[in-house]
Structure formats: structure tokens, C-alpha cells
Amino acid sequence: MKRQMPLYRLLTLVILLALFLAACGGSNQTTNNAPPANENTSSSNDNQPAAAPTTPPAAPTDEPVVAMGEPLKIGVMSDLTGSLALFGNEMWAGLRLGFEYATDGTMMAGNRPIELIIRDDVSDVETGAAAARQLIEAEGVEILIGNSSSAVALQVQQIAAENEVVYFAAPAASPAITGDNFNPYTFRVCRNSAQDGLTMAQWSIENIGTDYLILAEDYAFGQATAAGFQAAFGAFGGNFLTEQPIYAPSDTTDFTPYIQQIKNANPDGLILIWASNTSGAVMYEQLTSQGITGNIPFITGFSSNDLVKLLDPGNIGAVGLIVYHYTVPNTAANDWLVEQHLAQFNGYPDLFSECGFATAQAVVAALDATNGDTTGEVLIAALEGLSFAGPKGTYSIRAQDHQALASMYIVKLISVNDPNDAFFELVGEVSGETSAPPCTAPGRCE
């Protein structure tokens, strides 16, 4: 039996990257996210916007920093100008602040000065793979970080392993990265999308109903995320009205056949898993024009601040998951992140700022433990089982599959126009252990 809820109290959680172009039309995040002075920001993409200068951080001491070891080059790949640029720039800004925080402003780790070399992968598999090879072979980087797109990350992690270079996926969220596609050189400090379903499953079934459909984008991220929601909701007694999720191609322009399937099934809730910009906008428009929006609750999650601002005020009161919002965690690391993000980037940290920040913390902690040794065997041993205090509290990297566990959040939307982007009220914190995705790395999970 379905639970009926007032329209504005339904779970209408819209994380649609489809709104990306409209969200970013008023400001260019890349031009505001200037790197610290000691970074090499050359890019293989000639169209990357020029970075604007920022005020450099104050020196942590009155004594000069003396480089005692060989410089350490770290390659970073992020979508700075492509379809996932909103998320890619969030990660890139957070990463730089994370290195600053973890090194107390020295940009030294393991007694070695750090140099970050950024490449714009535009969320394209061929571009990302070429950037990874160029960073390793031509630039001589010893660690790789990045990729907004899971499809790109799944290729880059293989290139890293072939070259025995440790790779941190950030913020690519496909469970396959630390699951079926696992290799010992890959780590992920950011959230795994399987955690989304585990965070929302119990709340949804208790507050919405038991019968669901999934409409997902037909590529690696969509398929893996859909599998995670199926497993999580099934574990709490949820029922799916189709044997397989409803998959649609990324370039779909007419969602009518899929919407008709949804209408015919009449589920308690519709789980939306979509990440492409233009087709996502079309999907949301057609869900609204064809009578789904407001009648069947959407289950995904709240997204970046710019996208929340585009939500209809009628969504106020909705409850759903969020990976990170600057107003939620009460930690020293988050306080510092918020303060410095405002000072250096003239805005609040956003959805994946935490992902970059915590990844930098893990890199620095491991390098300090190895005294700067980036040899695969040594660095892997330092990272497996590593725990540290980051923006969301305690992060712990599982030795089995190299997936970090950290808190996720259920929040209530209280505003879509707050001048300080204070859009949410905390409903509940779901610990890293409670939201831990299953270990699926082949041969590693006994």
C-alpha cells in the first residue's frame, strides 16, 4: 500500500547535471579558482580559461621553508571546461586547499616540495587517457589524482596500474572503480555512489513506500549506481516494478516512451540517475510537462549550490541525501575549509570541494608516513587502513578495496535563495560504517 504525502513534502531531490549549463551561465568558476603560485597549471586543452590571481596564503612561520628532498610532481586531471566542469572545478579548488591545510601551508610532504600539474580532461575518455599518459611519461608525475567522469576514471586507473603509479579517483563515483575494476594502485577517498542508495534506502521505504522504478543513464556510472540502489533498497524490503532498471541513452531527446513506462507502473518513488547536461535538462522538462513531477517523488540527492538555487520554491521541505554541504559538518577541518574557500575563491565550498580536500589530506598523510617514497608497494602499504580527521570527520580507507568510508547526510531543504547558500537543515548523519558499500573487489573481500 502506498503512503500518501502532501506534494511539497515529497522527496523531490533533483541532482540533475542537466541544469549545469544554466547554473554556470552567470559566473565562470574556473576563472575564480586560481592555483597557488608554486603550481604548474599548464593544460593540454588550449581552451582552458585563464586563472585569476588570488592572495597567497600567509607563511606559516617566520623561517624560510627549505626543500630537503627531491620535488614531487603530482598530476591532476579534472573537468574544467566540459560537461562536468561544475563538479571538476569544485574538486580542483578543494584539492589545492587540502594540500595547503595538510602541509600547514608549506606544500611539503614527506620532506619533499609538492608541485601540482593540472590537465583538463573535459570528461572525455580519449582526452583523459592521453592526459594520464602525458603526465606520467612526459611530466614524470609520481601520483595521479582526478577525473570527474567515471568512464574516464575506469580507463585512467588501468594506465596508472600499468605504470605502477598510485591513482586517487576524485570525484568519479562508480562502484566499479574500487569494485569489479579494482587494481591495487587505485584508491578513492571520495564517496562511492553505492553509498547513495545505502544512505537513502531505509528513510525512503519508511517515508515513501516500497515500490520503485529506476530511470538511469545507460553508461558505466548509471549502470553501477542503479545496481547499488537495487541492492540497498532490496535489503530494506524495497520492491522494483521492473526486473531491470529503465535505461536511456545519454543523448536521448524524447523521453516519452520511458515516461509512459513510469506512468503505467505507477511506482511509489522514481529513482533518477542521470549526469549528462543537455539530455538531463530535457528529461526534467519532459517529466514535468508529462505529469510525473509532483505526482511521483524523485529519489536521488541534493546537488551543488548553483543547482539548488534553480529548484522550485515548492520543493522547500523536501528531504534527501547529500554528500557534503559546508553548513553540515562540525569539524576543525571543515571550519578551515569554509574560511579559506571564502578568502581564496570568494565563495563557499561546494559538493565536491570536500572530496578534493580529503584526497589531498590522504596523500600528504601517506607521504609523511613513507618519508616521500612513492614506490607503489610502499605507498600502497601506507594508504591501506589509513585513518585521518577530515571535513566530514573520520575517514578510513579499507585495505580490501581501497574505498574510504566517511559520513553521508540526510538533509531537509529550507531555502533555495539564501544569500549564504545555507539551504539545508540536518535530518541525520549516516556514519561511514552504516553507509559502507559492499566490498566487490575480485579476490579481495573474503
Could you characterize the architecture of this molecule?
- The structure is a single chain.
- This protein has 446 residues and is α/β, with parallel strands linked by helices.
- The chain folds into 2 domains: 7-22 and 194-322, 3-Layer(aba) Sandwich (Rossmann fold); 33-58 and 67-191 and 329-406, Rossmann fold.
- The protein has helices at residues 20-24, 29-32, 85-102, 125-137, 150-162, 194-207, 220-235, 256-265, 277-289, 305-308, 332-345, 353-370, 376-383, and strands spanning 72-78, 108-109, 112-120, 143-146, 166-169, 186-187, 211-217, 239-240, 246-248, 269-273, 298-299, 319-322, 387-390, 393-397, 404-405, 408-413, 424-430.
- The chain has a 6-stranded mixed sheet, with helices on both faces. Strands 7, 8, 9, 10 and 11 form a 5-stranded parallel sheet that branches.
- Strand 13 and strand 14 (393-397) form a beta hairpin.
- Helix 3 packs parallel to helix 12 (353-370).
- It is globular and about 65 Å long.
